[in-house]
Recover the amino acids of this structure.
């Protein structure tokens, strides 16, 4: 008989901690969403052209490029492709692509 009560106590305890974890996750999600909305309201967040994610600036070789937080797409602003291609050697992929586009 005591085994039934022990199992019941254990079950109630597990249910309590599961509920606590779910509430903590819900609070974290609400906080992240509020921060995202605040950044959007301030105009610092750009929408991803491919999906409904937001673009986050990252530093790549001292060049600030935009990366989507959902699809991980990379987006370059004006002049960033040229800066990246100049850093590569003449046989690099970006340099060859840029030369073929610009007709050099």
């Amino acid at each position: 008989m005591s085994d039934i009560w022990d199992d019941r106590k254990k079950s109630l305890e597990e249910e309590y901690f599961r509920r606590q974890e779910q509430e903590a996750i819900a609070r974290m999600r609400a906080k992240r969403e509020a921060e995202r909305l605040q950044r959007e309201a301030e105009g610092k967040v750009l929408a991803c052209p491919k999906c409904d994610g937001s673009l986050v600036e990252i530093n790549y070789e001292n060049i600030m490029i935009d990366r989507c937080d959902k699809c991980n797409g990379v987006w370059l602003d004006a002049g960033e492709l040229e800066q990246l291609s100049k850093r590569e050697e003449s046989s690099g992929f970006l340099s060859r692509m840029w030369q073929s586009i610009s007709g050099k």
